[in-house]
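Appendix B. One record, verbatim.
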Amino acid sequence: MDMLDSYFFENDLLRYESHLKGFNISIFNEFNSKFEELDVNLKIEDLFTAKHVNYTEDQAALHPKYRASSPNWPSKQLSKCIDNGLLDGVFNIVVLGIGGSFEGPKLLVESLIVPNKNLNHLFITGSDPHEFTEKTFNLKKTETLFIVSSKSFTTDETLETLNDAIKWSGDMNKFVAITANELEASKYNFKHIIKFDKEIGGRYSIWSDIAVPAFLDATFEPDNFLMGGNQADLDLQNNKKYLEFVKTLSFSDIWLNNSKNKTARAVLSYSWKLRSFADYVQQLEMESLGKQPKKDSAFQKTGQIIFGGYGPTAQHSYFQLLHQGTQDICADIIASKENLKSLAYAQAITQAKILSDGAKDLLKAEEKINGNIPLNLFLLNKVDAFTLGYLIATWEHRTYITAAMLEINPFDQFGVNAGKIYTKKYLSDKI
């Protein structure tokens, strides 16, 4: 068929269905010509051969190397910490971090850790002290381990909360730092420091020791997670159908944004395990693609606005706007086929259909659904470590190819740094 509205991709892990009205083979081929003109295949090769694809900071992006190194998790550094009594008497794992140091571990814990009586995970982002007070209120100091995750170890929110945690605990044996800047971390007299490469960006750090909070739980399967990510890498380089699938995602994102004014995309998960997936990919996409275009770029709109959350909840909060509103929005819907008879799965399938095609046969005239939402439907066979690794790496590939097509660097974030600079100036002026 000419229309990619009916395009699908399927393998042993997932099935993808496109519902992209107007995005046809001719448009795909136009984008593919641009893909070849920009030599994006070479850029993909450069990523996997550790070339300096982060050209504004003159360094490689090493996250693919980490997921290709299985089964080397947990790292020797972590094993040494555990051997030295890191977990002795510990029940509460409190993670202090923000951005990728928060979203990645949180997603892993929510998605892949089987609830048990051995460990209790909490995540604190800062910088409001009430968050720390509230989340530590019922904790016993002797049972609480703080994991302080910061690539630079200069992140204001994390350091502010760290100072609160040190005052609260009083025992530096109950702290472990995870960072790419060991020198800065050493200023706090940590007994345990775990170091990872500076060439791993925060939003890509889920593949590194930033994932330690999940590692510490015996129900996590780290090797399977890494191997899932690595399988997506191998597919991108060797599987033409998978590459076509990722191109379809990337090309349609750019087309919807630049040609159809679909500047916002809702990411909706109908799996409770993946309830934070939208938050995770929000950072991945908006921090990677939220850059200024080149003046001569073929595409002047770069990253889309990403929002979303847990689908069943979203249906009762903002779906009214999607169904009958006037805003230009597109969507990604994710569901798991683990329970085909569940209400959540039925909701995912039904919402995909009526968001895309509309509905009127069972409705009164005033209840008519627009049916003007272009969307991607991802149906996972199950939510396990391997599949989640594959899904996240696939989303990274989607983002990377989009960045290459837009001729921007997906690995820097100078806009984020600007906020830090001006906040410090504001605080110093007040003092």
